[in-house]
Design a protein that fits this description.
With about 500 residues, this protein is α/β, with parallel strands linked by helices. It has 24 helices and 17 strands. The chain folds into three domains: about 5-250, Rossmann fold; about 260-390, Orthogonal Bundle (Helicase, Ruva Protein, domain 3), CATH 1.10.8.80; about 390-505. α24 links the parallel β16 and β17 (about 500-505).
Amino acid sequence: MSLPSSLGSLREAVKAGRVPHRSVKDELRSNLAIALRAGRPLFPGIIGYDDTVVPQVVNAILSRHNFILLGLRGQAKTRLLRALVSLLDPEIPVVPGCEVHDDPLRPLCASCRARIVSEGDDLPVSWRSRDDRYVEKLATPDVTIADMIGDVDPIKAARSARELGDEMTMHYGLLPRANRGVFAINELPDLASKVQVGLFNILQEGDVQIKGYPVRLRLDVLLVFSANPEDYTARGKIITPLKDRIGSEIRTHYPRTRRDALAITAQEAWVDRGTDGASGPRVEVPSFVREIVEEIAFQARGDQKVDKRSGVSQRLPITTIENVVSNAERRALVSAEAVAAPRVSDIYASLPSLTGKIELEYEGELKGVEHVARELVRKAVATVFDGHAANLDTAPVVEWFNRGGSLDLSDTSSATDLIAAVEPIDGFNRVVAALGAGDRNSEPGRASIADFVLEGLCALKKISRTDDGRLLGTPSQTRQRPEPQDLDQLMEDDEPAVKGKKKYYN
């Protein structure tokens, strides 16, 4: 169906029902209802919110509410706001050249009203796409009322030979320019209080007044906001009258299961590197490495040394797994291996991508961020390994170390060297075979499993690591594998891991 190109043809199309004519909130509500009836996914790419956040957003849209997403950093607040665009119509008619994208059938600005009077049904109509109808502003303390709402424009007045009090000399701010769309303000508490006051009218009465003008613009816009609760005291706050005018306050959260967290990281992380020419290694990430990286974030969110008010962003596992893969790539390139299979030791080599993502409490500051980060990695390794190897007989491996056996390896050791080093260990190959399942297809894959076993036994304090990185047996042969609930205490008194070479010993 061809779209109307003039005001007259648009009127006929609206009258015949071929083109809908409604407000933005009614448009979102109607399209949402159609999606719900059809059973379509509402916000593709948003994982872990199906039973919590998404139903609340749906209720807010069905209620025609302006709403705010309130949550800690890295909880997909901005992504969810941007996904609202999918509920808008593909295109809407606008008056061409209008700064506020006026509705040809219901114009707001004086310029468009004058054009309709002079041109009548011959007034041209243009069409605005849904993507262009989303306007986003990051709130900062330097944002002014003029930026947000508008102001007098002396230059426009001089060029058009008009008085400053003439409506035609207005300079429109971001909010009027978002007319007939969705206007999102991120980090709302950072907005100065006097600018927040300027939003009162649009939230309650649905209009704005540009300073000095007797005319009010009844804008057609959905206002949505995001904020971090920590910012209420750290940098600013949302003033009470503004909070009172926001229809719905929706709390976001971090992934509640490792499965959801794995799905988010798999979606966001750059892991599938492909190959850089004929000599580039193929990346194969073992499932247990992915699980450990996700478990680090879960451990950090529950650790007393990490500031819970600041939160631990989901960006932590995303950047960590990318760095882990890069370390494996580096090793594969140096060793001329066709496959880059990340190991647990690569996680320790990737601490720079982790340490910047956590804020520490006083106790953590005393120990240092790198010590805390290594502690979190060890807890994660212990938790995941205990889950994978709970029913495996690792006693012969531990006994080999207790009899004086030791290994001297590093995260740069080639797969061939690592496999050759563990070959003499009693029962080691049986443990690797039981854990390997579908990951035994390549030598680097087997080496990754072998490293997982060594790091897992070390994390569970069944074998030990010297200051220079050698892995040996434990000082006491009577030490038993702790129950999962004892892992936190186990890690509390563990010595920090040594970057680079590792020796497993007793």
